[in-house]
Amino acid sequence: MGEPDRTTWSDSSARAVLQLMVESVAELIGFEVAALSVVLGDELVTLAYTGPEEHREYMEQPDPVSVIEPVLARATPWGRRLRYIEPTPVEELEGHWIHFDPVPSDAEDAWGQGEELFAELSDDDGTVVGILSVDRPASGRRPGARELSLLERYAAQAERAVLTLFEREALLEQVAQAESARHLIRSASRPTLDSLDDVLRHTHDQLVASFDARGSWVHVFQPDGPPISVARTRTGQRVEIDPDVLAFTSELAPRLWDRQRPLVLPDDTEPESLPATVRAHLLRRDDSRVLGVALGVGDECVGLMVLSRDPDQPGWSSVEVASVQQIGHDLGAVLMTARALERERNLVVELQRMDDYRSQVIAMLSHELRTPLTVISGNLELLGDTDLDEEATRYHQAMGRGTERMRQVVDDLLLLARVSNPSHPLVRLPVDLRAVTREVVSLVESTARTKGVSLTVRLGPDPLTVCGDAVELDRLVGNLVSNAVKYTGAGGSVVIAAQHQDDDVVLAVTDTGLGISEEDQRGLFQAFFRTTNPQALREPGTGLGLATVATIVERHQGRVDVASRLGEGSTFTLTLPAG
């Protein structure tokens, strides 16, 4: 398993999914505080937290991974994953801990201040990947066997989700590295690069930038003459390569190519026959992190490429090694023949496959969440048919709300994955956008009436026909109209107007709600986007609605535009080709 970057996780869909999971676990099990921390590199980072807001900033401070072992040593196993720590002064606990005041209770099993209950999340090798902790049970009592069993189940689901998200982040890194490789090969094949030296110079700039290298060295064999060898520092300064190293390269590069393996120094002890003088030269000037790959096409090796890093830089990850090896193949093709264009097309196909697989990962995660949701919903329905006292009814309703909210996220994820999947073609049929809009309005009228928001519909008497998928168009209009109602306060208004305009059908949804800042408008249609407006954040949402809108519009060869000013309302204008 790789080591995803902390910033990547905080900006990605992973955090939104984990936050929803933590909130749902806390609500379903009956705890007022819950947090999920994930091991990212050498840090334990809290990515999801629900509880008193005044403690959020403290809870989200990262801890070194080294705090995990002593904490586990203090804990008593309460199940396969669950761990319990008896009341302990907070200053004796390693890392960032808070002792929340417990809910008062006179019961013998009352939850005391300083008690800690958490689940240890691990991968298949037993390596800890995260911690799911809960505190302050709403009942004021320690959880019973039923609650512990449920918590164990949800911890298992959280563990699977974290491991899946680790795989997803590794995939995203592969996509980014593959994109860098694609850009490098295409730019190195430009007709403006007249000579091999120009290609090598341009390749150097791309290599050191893409892989954060201190320098690069490319050695190319020439069938009818001496090899061409160019080594440069990051700033472009030429570096002389020792003659012994140049001589040995003719032996080293073909061996690496035949074995299809990289040379990683100083960790790599293979090949054993690497002369000490060559090894010392490659590691000179404290360049203690060296990655070398052979360049070639088919059975023929055409050269060697070496990248170097300073000792204080990160070592070469497995993803980077794989990416550089791929570049060795493609760059070899560029240097050898005009087949570089074909190599580029193959790489584009590979990028598309990776992008498709990313969508499959999202869909798989959604299905993994849907299965336990179905079980929970079924049991909640059965539980609702029994005679429940007032307190149990309140908990039952809270569980129902949490389940419904999570189901909506799963449905949104599945829809986004479906409409983003190029293997799921759009079946175009005539659809009356006027009828779709009326149906949507009928569904949101009661919500608008309850909020005190006036709805005005201006559609005209004639059909507004477009060609597309009726279900997707219904969701498209529904997301725009429901958002307008959601973010408009009492006394405000929402106007939905549609008409023919040249060869298009144009639908405009205008509200007098919160409005959207210019900064937020730039990321509005990205998946899992959440506004920076505190007022808007009070409204529940997944950040998937407008991303789905943008994807559906693109599939229908249309466009969606937004005009808004913060505090004055917004207008979303949908333009689709008339059918």
Number of domains: 3
The whole-angstrom Rg is 29 Å
Quote the CATH topology of the largest domain. Beta-Lactamase
**CA distance, first residue to last residue:** 50 Å
Relevant CATH superfamily of the largest domain: GAF domain
Number of helices: 16
Helix content: 40-55%
Strand order of the largest sheet: 3-2-1-7-6-5-4
Give a structural overview.
It contains 16 helices and 19 strands. With 579 residues, it is an alpha+beta fold. It has three domains: 6-171 and 356-420, GAF domain (Beta-Lactamase), CATH 3.30.450.40; 189-336, GAF domain (Beta-Lactamase); 429-577, Histidine kinase-like ATPase, C-terminal domain (Heat Shock Protein 90, 2-Layer Sandwich). The protein has a seven-stranded antiparallel sheet with strand order 3-2-1-7-6-5-4, sandwiched between helices. A five-stranded antiparallel sheet has the order 9-8-12-11-10, with helices on both faces. The radius of gyration is 29 Å and the shape is flat. Mean pLDDT is 81; it is low at 1-8 and 338-343.
What order do the helices and strands come in, and which of them pair?
Blueprint: H1 6-11, H2 13-29, E1 31-40, E2 43-50, H3 56-59, E3 63-64, H4 68-74, E4 76-77, E5 82-85, E6 116-122, E7 128-137, H5 145-188, H6 196-210, E8 215-222, E9 225-233, H7 243-259, E10 263-265, H8 276-282, E11 289-297, E12 300-309, H9 318-336, H10 340-384, H11 390-420, E13 429-432, H12 433-451, E14 454-458, E15 465-468, H13 470-486, E16 493-501, E17 504-511, H14 518-522, H15 534-537, H16 545-555, E18 559-565, E19 569-577
